[in-house]
Amino acid sequence: MSKIGKIDLDTFEKFVMQRLGRDNKKVIVPPQTGVDASVIDIGNNKVLVIAEDPIFPTPGESLDTFGWYIVHIGASDVAVTGVKPEYMTYSLLMSPDTKDEDFKAIVDSIHKTAKELDISIVGGHTGYYPAVNTPIIGGITVFAIADKDDYVTPKGAKIGDRVILTKGPAIEATGLLALVYEEKLLKKLSPKIIEKARRYLKEMTVVTDALIAKSCGGVTAMHDATEGGVVGGLFEVTSASDVGMLVDEKKFVYPDEIKLVMECLDIDPVEAISEGTLIITASPEKADGIVKALAKEGIPSSIIGDVIPKEKGRTIIRLDGSEEPLKIPEQDPFWPAFFKGLEGK
Questions:
Q1: Residues spanned by the domain of 118
Q2: How far apart, in whole angstroms, are the C-alpha atoms of residue 69 and residue 65?
Q3: In this structure, what DSSP letter does residue 42 have?
Q4: β-bridge pairing 244-248 and 301-308
Q5: Of 147, 182, 214, which residue is a domain's last?
Q6: Does residue 2 have a pLDDT over 70?
Q7: Please, which pLDDT band fits residue 69 given cuts at 50, 70 and 90?
Q8: How high does pLDDT run on average in the chain?
Q9: Distance between CA atoms of 215 and 219, rounded to whole angstroms?
Q10: Domain boundary among 116, 147, 178
């Protein structure tokens, strides 16, 4: 199968990164591997934090859920800077035969979710096009204004920091694949396990995780583990910060339903897309407090390792005790499984 998902790291860095239009010194944080949002100096000691994502639905999910995670996925990329998302625009593209009630359900859910997060919708585009066969979000752009010295990026991890992971690996992969492969999974797993797995569709957000962590102090970097999963996200933090890292999979929060669904589908959970899993690096004296503060809000997390000098490597100790390098997988295993599952729908 041809590669599905984000373009590979080499193409991004050698081709896309060399074609960013006019150079502008006001761009403090430009596009970079592992950096979720850009930061622009707008004067008066203020910055604009901005991020964009495309989003499409999964057959079988409710349109309310689709609208919910449209907003949360976009907002998460701003929240990981420690800045509360304020504004958004979105482009909703639909096929000409889209039912009016479906259009209204999507827009209404986006509106309600934006209100819940105190985000103002300030623009976008909505239309019907023959080339589109299912409603998709061509792009959601979320942005906010912050003080110039009051944000973090994945570039800030420091040697000696502790590494914290929220919720566990494969959050998005588990939720979506439990929906797509429900009939197959029910032959091996109980309905209760499948239901728990499907609930991760409403865990595909790190907005609350990130804002709680930042409020505790001591956070040096945050990153949402999306495509390439936890190992890809950890690698991106080490790459952006030019540091090493040693983490232990045994220390992850690891719900049974994630292990079981991924095992049934023969997917390595640490490599699978995990929107909803927040990677945090923080000073040692603040790390335990961050874990406790997250727990008070019902968000499980754990300290999984340390930031170390780059020359000591970037390593994950797997459950069986073997050691593997942190890296971006050549192919996130979620995408081939996802589209194979859709063929049977």
A1: 9-147
A2: 6
A3: E
A4: antiparallel
A5: 147
A6: no
A7: very high
A8: 95
A9: 9
A10: 147
Q: What is the pTM of this model?
A: 0.94
Q: Which two tokens stand for residue 184?
A: 């197959």
Amino acid at 337: A
Distance between CA atoms of residues 28 and 40, nearest Å:
5
How many Å apart are CA 275 and CA 169, to the nearest integer?
9
Q: What is the CATH number of the domain that holds 121?
A: 3.30.1330.10
| Tokens 């499984």, residue located | 337
Mean pLDDT of 140-147: 98
Give yes or no: residues 161 and 143 share one domain.
no
**φ/ψ of residue 301, rounded to 5:** -155, 170
Look at 339 and 126; give whichever has higher pLDDT: 126
Return the biggest CA–CA distance within the chain: 61
Distance of CA 340 to the CA centre of its chain: 22
In a domain, 4, yes or no: no
CATH number of the domain where residue 182 is located = 3.90.650.10
Q: Please state the length of the chain.
A: 345
Q: Report the alpha-carbon angle 173-178-181, nearest 5.
A: 110
Q: Does residue 184 share a domain with residue 72? A: no
Assess whether 206 and 334 both reside in one domain.
Answer: yes
Supply the DSSP symbol for 34: T
User: H/E/C letters for each residue in 155-186?
Assistant: HHCCCCCEEEEECCCCHHHHHHHHHHCHHHHC
